[in-house]
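Components:
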Amino acid sequence: MFLKDYIKEVAGALKSLASGMKMTGYYFTHHKEIITEEYPDNRNSLVLAERFKGEVVMTHDENNEHACTGCTACELACPNATIKIITKFDVDEATGKKKKALDTFIYHLELCTLCNLCVDACPTGAIKMAPTFEHSVFDRNQLTKKLNNPGSKIRAGVE
Amino acid sequence: MWSFSNIANEIHTWLSSQLPPIWATIVEMVIAGVAVIGLFAILGLVLVIMERKVAAWIQIRLGPNRVGPKGMFQSMADTVKLLVKEGMTPNGADKLMFNVAPFIAMIVAMLLMAPIGFAKDFQLWDLNIGVLYITAISSISVIGILMAGWASNNKYSLLGAMRSGAQIVSYELSAGLAILTIIVLTGSLQLSDIVQAQADGWWIFKGHLPVIIAFLIFITAVTAETNRAPFDLAEAESELTAGFHTEYSGMKFALFFLAEYINVFIVCAIGATLFLGGWMPFHIGNWEGFNHVMDYIPSSVWFFGKTFFLIFVIMWFRWTFPRLRIDQLLNLEWKYLLPISMINLLLVTLIAILGWHF
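Structure:
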């Protein structure tokens, strides 16, 4: 009885090893699909996965309008103080009321861990992760970025 | 036809006519030594690039492709890099042992080159106990590894060396028993006799199932003996930071690295000699016409073809199987390989006595 189990075990082991080798042997002999990128050569045709997280950007539409209300939810969500939001008060022309609005969205890429918590926290979907990764610069001051475009304002209807 | 043996004979007769016999022998030894070192260098370069390309293709990558055509000079560039690097010796290390260990690893590999027949009548030293010599010398390689691990004064090195010791000592047994099956069939320890016995067919075809089992056990055991994955606990890049050669750098590291690949080549050459007929072309029994056609392929091509096929198989193992745990490793040897190879040896003995092999 013991011998039967022993032989069965050896045969099963050999079979599983053979199936593994068959798989890798198939990859070796069918050298077509390559999962790696020849990065510096294919810079212009580089395709990155949709979920790739390279840096935080703020989306602007064609009228140079963004969806950021300056609520600072992202600033509070950030675990390492990457985001600093400076707000101002706009005067609504129709009603004459004062309203809080975004003045400057400061983003410190050098501190960012790309954890995506700010994007999750944003109630209006104003920021997102961009698939860029060539961030190296000679002066780290250049990594402190202003995300809202100059002269941009909040899109009408976003509260 | 052009062959290595003619070159060797011509050099021998020319030297004998020019010099007294003792000097002729010394000059021949020097030539052989230089040839072996040259072969080492070429093998190191070829095997490293081969390993990286095989690994890349198996993992659906491209592998090195920057230096030279299709990256074929990558290993040369790596060698230049290693040559110009500083060979550091750690402060707490045992200086003498630390510096001697890589050379022991290399010397063992060099000694093992002696009895291997690279082509027809082309062998450095055809001693009559060739197989015993090989098994004896290959056990010395563990000393180099233990020395390196102990002298490094580093816990990872020591752990790697200890694992390596346990591993090599235990797998030597089943490798030896697998080799013994061929000795039983051939009735000689001389490598040239073993090759000659396969003139009418290689042992792996002539010896039925038991020899195939012995061949599988041999390949498994030598993979373990050369410390290659899936038995690379001694090095284990991911857990021991390279094991016994953690503290080595520059050319001293390169010697260990080279010795590993040379050892792979040697065990594959021995495997090819014992089971696949060494330099013997593919012959089938008494088919004279077929055998003559096969004889037109030079014997060195046969030898290197078989050896590189086995090397490819071992590389294939490395990039397919996950690393074993130390208890699994010793279980495999003592509970599976050793009993199976013992019973297998008895079977082969029966076959040899009753003359059931072809």
